């Protein structure tokens, strides 16, 4: 077996990265300003876990020259480390088990590790976050405005039916104009114009271009299309945009020449109009696309180059993993951060899943991972957690480092040949302990140099053999696949890339799997699977609910118009006298004073008869006597009034020509009115 | 005259008139269009807004003879049209032409004269001739009447019957100028402007009567699409079915719209009429031809409101909607 592994290692040496290439990559990657812990002038503040690497990185490290200088004596232990500056991607590795090492001046006491502030940057810059919020709020407001606007214009729904039929079909009877079916999509109109032009129907093609232009302008809210509006109205709508107005006017003039003039539509005419319409139609669309792309670019994560694509959210602190992933990519390994959940993991056909850091999958997720592994996948565990599933048959224990030699690791089980001459070091004494009752290790890889003791193990064939009781990394078979377990994640941390041959070993080990390597950390699965989950994750539920409540109140207050809106009717009840006045003006305009006089006197006389002599046909004299008796006015006076009224009535019925009212006539009418009022019998109170 | 030249001439006339008549661009435009369309206009506005000045300026710029008639209640028809006067010397009746025998006539406050006097003028407007004692005499060409009436006084007036109003191609409402315009008017007067001395103001003659006649004839070449005819018919037809209108416009209104549309098209150097021409002129052409229901008048609805509503509903030909 060992010679075979040796041969394999030899073969792989030619395919896998070389030490020089990895070292060069590590140096270049750590030189990136993202890893400012390698820059002594950056003022980077190291956490306690970061300081674990101080001695191993050492002074004058070519790959990370400034790190050792940052490990100064300011932090004396026992003080809460100052949080990193805003905008920094620093995260503290929470819940790390074990004890800190190499605490300079700590005096044996562990410094406080529990940060009170966790600055988590999900990968978006401040400006990008602002832009995202602005776009979201702006989009919501535009949606509300569009709903209100479309409801309020009272457009007939029949105008928005989409059917492929020319709106200006000359075969349509003119009276059917209101019932015609109209194409409104700009793209389809342009396409139809092209097709019509191709068939030689240039008049229809010009009409389609005309419609496309207006629809575009209408869609952008610059004009309002209506069947009763003319081209002049549309041009006036654009008064605030002089340049666009001029361009649109030019197009409309050309179209009018075709529609109403004697210009015969031809290909040159069509082309000329098309050349004018196209930039107008696509300009707006191009602006939208440009805005969208800019928004996507600015609001997204790092899209600078392929090397950083998909790495948003990965930690760049000394205890992060981003540098290692970048080094992997430089070796053409498709490694990226997995943000979606572990659901549908079975669909992943090949490659490896890398659990890194303080990630704690649930039981279901462990089932999913191990089930996938059994089907042929490779699972790499470098969490440093001691809660690995029991079925793995392996436990993690973090020990203490008592001396420098405790930081060294050695290769075992054939790996010493593959990595002959390499030195691996980690600042902690992490180790794996195999469960003797459930020994599942198929191959050991690395163990602490100072590991002690051996255990007698029984393999699956029932044979006993001696194996180191302490390991740092080992392979565990799982069906068709395998799990590679590391005692802690330190070998893959960013600072580790500057230590000895850690970078080469880690890179070389993970280059073998083919396919993609997905990094699973505590951010995996935090992406939302649906909009509701996104809202919940972003804690925007109260905001959304408030906005919805505001919309509901707005609709209750302003209401929604149904159907065609009409001008508000001025509801003003006019007094009866106003109507009388209006009618009087009509009579006056018609020069009908005499007629009015006659009508009025007739009515007065009849009313008087009804009041004082009902059911009788008294003469004027008798009527006058009765009225005088009722009113107490002198009979002679009453008689005079009645005679004048009677004569007016008679004369009006035979009158012809225009009669000019006299002042006396009006006085007579007033006298008759007073007489009529006086003739009212007062109602006796019972 | 080519259309470009037509347009340039029209613009020169308009600019020349606008030098004198400030802040009345729409009035000037409508008046010129009515002249070109061989129509007459009725101008309604309070005194002092420059109506007489407009006609006088028109006469000067267009090179036409101008006369003014002040209509009073005692004005007789013969005072307008003229009549036969016995000439003792010749022992014969001699026809003395009335002021209507002119090219540009200002009939000031036409609603102050009795109906028979109004009728005499309106007959001359319609027939472009005067008949006296069985002899018909043609009026000169071009013949343009601008009648005015005061909207605020109703006492002692004889409102034109609706049937007579129909003979005016347009009714134009003149309003008070804005403050800026009024200041400009005052500045003109400060600089020595006198309404009675237009040549002294530097006003030049742009056209002659013959040229105007030629321009009027040229309008027959302006193309009118079938869609425009449908549009005009639709608009005028809607006036007859409008809920606030008791009596809508007659076919004379359709003819007037068509003629005015052609004139406007030519003025803009187009050899075809577009819907904008009709829509822009419809209010002026229709407002005096509508008789409203009394209840609509009581509600404050005006003829302009009705026309605006009709224009918001009439379907524009070849529309993209």
Protein topology:
The complex is a heterodimer of chains A (686) and B (321).
Chain A (H helix, E strand, L loop, with lengths): L1 H14 L3 H12 L17 H4 L2 H4 L9 H4 L55 H27 L33 H13 L3 H18 L11 H7 L4 H18 L7 H33 L22 H9 L3 E4 L13 E6 L6 H12 L3 E5 L11 E6 L8 E4 L3 H4 L5 E2 L3 E6 L6 E8 L5 E5 L5 E5 L4 E6 L2 E6 L15 H9 L5 E5 L10 H7 L3 H18 L17 H14 L3 H20 L7 H12 L3 H19 L9 H16 L8
Parallel strand pairs in A: 1-13, 2-3, 2-13, 3-12
Antiparallel strand pairs in A: 4-7, 5-6, 5-8, 8-11, 9-10, 11-12
Helix pairs in contact in A: 2-12, 7-8, 8-10, 8-11, 9-10, 10-11, 19-21, 19-22, 20-21, 21-22
Chain B lengths: L2 H18 L4 H12 L4 E4 L6 H12 L3 E5 L6 H5 E6 L4 E6 L6 E5 L6 H13 L1 E4 L2 E4 L5 E6 L12 H4 L4 E4 L5 H12 L18 H10 L7 H16 L3 E3 L3 H17 L7 H12 L4 E2 L1 H5 L4 H9 L10
Parallel strand pairs in B: 1-8, 1-9, 2-5, 5-8
Antiparallel strand pairs in B: 3-4, 6-7, 10-11
What key phrases describe this protein's structure?
heterodimer; A: 686 residues; alpha/beta; nine-stranded mixed sheet; two-stranded antiparallel ribbon; 13 strands; 43% helix; elongated; B: 321 residues; five-stranded parallel sheet; 13 helices; globular
């Amino acid at each position: 077996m060992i010679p075979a592994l040796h041969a394999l290692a030899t073969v792989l040496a030619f395919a896998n990265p070389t030490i020089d290439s990895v070292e060069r990559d590590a140096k270049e990657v750590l030189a990136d300003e993202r890893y400012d812990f390698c820059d002594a002038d950056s003022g980077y503040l190291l956490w306690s876990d970061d300081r674990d690497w101080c001695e191993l990185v050492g002074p004058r490290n070519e790959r990370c020259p400034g790190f050792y200088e940052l490990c100064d004596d300011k932090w004396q232990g026992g003080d809460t480390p100052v949080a990193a500056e805003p905008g920094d991607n620093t995260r503290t590795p929470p819940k790390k088990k074990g004890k800190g090492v190499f605490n300079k001046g700590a005096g044996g006491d562990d410094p406080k590790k529990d940060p009170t502030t966790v600055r988590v940057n999900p990968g978006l810059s401040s400006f990008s976050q602002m832009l995202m919020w602005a776009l979201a709020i702006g989009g919501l407001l535009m949606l509300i405005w569009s709903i209100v606007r479309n409801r309020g214009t009272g457009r007939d729904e029949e105008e928005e039916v989409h059917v492929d039929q020319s709106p200006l079909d000359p075969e349509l009877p003119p009276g059917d104009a209101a019932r015609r079916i109209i194409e409104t999509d700009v793209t389809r109109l342009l396409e139809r114009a092209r097709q019509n032009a191709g068939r030689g129907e240039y008049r229809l093609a010009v009409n389609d271009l005309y419609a496309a232009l207006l629809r575009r302008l209408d869609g952008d809210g610059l004009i309002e299309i209506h069947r009763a509006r003319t081209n002049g109205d549309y041009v006036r709508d654009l008064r605030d945009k002089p340049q666009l107005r001029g361009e649109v006017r030019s197009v409309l003039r050309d179209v009018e020449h075709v529609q109403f003039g004697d210009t015969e539509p031809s290909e040159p005419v069509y082309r000329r109009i098309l050349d004018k319409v196209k930039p107008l139609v696509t300009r707006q669309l191009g602006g939208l696309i440009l805005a969208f792309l800019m928004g996507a670019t600015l609001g997204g994560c790092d899209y600078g180059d392929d090397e950083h694509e998909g790495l948003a959210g990965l930690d760049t602190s000394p205890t992060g993993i981003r540098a290692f992933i970048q080094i992997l990519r430089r070796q053409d390994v498709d490694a990226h951060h997995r943000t979606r959940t572990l659901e549908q993991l079975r669909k992943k056909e090949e490659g490896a899943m890398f659990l890194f850091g303080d990630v704690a999958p649930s039981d279901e997720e462990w089932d999913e991972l191990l089930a996938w592994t059994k089907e042929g996948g490779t699972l790499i565990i470098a969490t440093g957690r001691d809660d690995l599933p029991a079925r793995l048959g392996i436990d993690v224990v973090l020990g203490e480092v008592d001396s420098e030699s405790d930081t060294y690791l050695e290769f075992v089980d054939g790996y010493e040949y593959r990595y002959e001459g390499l030195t691996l070091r980690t600042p902690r004494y992490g180790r794996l302990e195999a469960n003797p009752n459930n020994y599942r290790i198929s191959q050991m890889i690395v163990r602490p140099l100072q590991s002690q003791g051996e255990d007698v193990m029984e393999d699956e064939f029932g044979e006993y053999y001696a194996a180191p009781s302490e390991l740092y990394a080992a392979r565990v078979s799982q069906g068709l696949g395998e799990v590679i377990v590391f005692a802690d994640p330190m070998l893959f941390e960013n600072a580790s890339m500057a230590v000895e041959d850690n970078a080469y070993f880690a890179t070389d080990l993970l280059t073998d799997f083919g396919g993609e390597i997905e990094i699973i950390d505590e951010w995996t699965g935090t992406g939302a699977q649906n909009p509701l989950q996104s809202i919940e994750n972003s804690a925007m539920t109260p905001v959304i609910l408030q906005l919805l409540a505001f919309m509901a109140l707005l609709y209750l207050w302003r209401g929604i118009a149904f159907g065609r809106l009409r001008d508000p009717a001025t509801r003003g009840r006019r007094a009866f006298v106003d109507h009388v006045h209006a009618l009087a003006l009509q009579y006056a305009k018609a020069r009908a004073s005499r007629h009015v006089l006659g009508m009025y006197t007739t009515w007065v006389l009849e009313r008087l008869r009804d009041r004082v002599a009902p059911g009788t046909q008294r003469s004027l004299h008798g009527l006058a006597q009765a009225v005088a008796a009722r009113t107490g006015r002198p009979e002679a006076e009453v008689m005079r009034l009645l005679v004048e009224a009677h004569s007016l009535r008679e004369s009006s019925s035979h009158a012809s020509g225009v009669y000019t009212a006299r002042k006396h006539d009006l006085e007579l009418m007033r006298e008759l009115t007073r007489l009529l009022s006086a003739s009212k019998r007062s109602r006796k109170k019972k | 005259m080519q259309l470009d030249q037509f347009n340039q001439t029209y613009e020169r006339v308009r600019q020349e008139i606008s030098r004198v008549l400030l802040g009345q661009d729409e009035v000037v435009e409508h008046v010129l269009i009515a002249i070109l369309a061989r129509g007459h206009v009725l101008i309604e506005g309070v005194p002092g807004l420059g109506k007489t000045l407009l006609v006088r300026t028109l006469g000067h710029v267009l090179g036409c003879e101008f006369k003014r008639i002040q209509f009073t209640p005692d004005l007789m028809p013969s005072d307008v049209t003229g009549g036969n006067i016995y000439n003792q010397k010749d022992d014969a009746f001699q026809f003395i032409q009335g002021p209507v025998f002119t090219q540009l006539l200002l009939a000031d406050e036409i609603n102050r004269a009795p109906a028979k006097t109004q009728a005499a003028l309106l007959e001359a407007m319609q027939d472009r001739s005067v008949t006296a004692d069985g002899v018909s005499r043609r009026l000169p060409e071009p013949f343009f009447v601008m009648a005015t009436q005061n909207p605020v006084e109703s006492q002692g007036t004889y409102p034109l019957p609706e049937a007579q109003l129909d003979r005016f191609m347009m009714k134009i409402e003149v309003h008070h100028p804005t403050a800026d315009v009024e200041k400009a008017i005052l500045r003109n007067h400060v600089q020595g402007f006198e309404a009675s001395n237009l040549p002294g103001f530097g006003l030049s003659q742009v056209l002659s009567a013959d040229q105007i006649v030629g321009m009027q004839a040229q309008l027959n070449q302006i193309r009118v699409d079938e869609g425009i005819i449908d549009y005009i018919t639709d608009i005028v037809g809607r006036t007859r079915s409008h809920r606030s209108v008791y009596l809508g416009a007659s076919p004379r209104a359709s003819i007037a719209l068509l003629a005015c549309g052609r004139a406007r098209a030519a003025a803009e150097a187009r050899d075809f009429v577009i819907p904008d021409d009709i829509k822009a002129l419809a209010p002026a052409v229709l407002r005096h031809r509508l008789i409203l229901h009394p209840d609509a008048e009581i509600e404050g609805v005006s003829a302009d409101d009705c026309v605006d509503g009709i224009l918001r509903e009439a379907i524009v030909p070849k529309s993209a909607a």
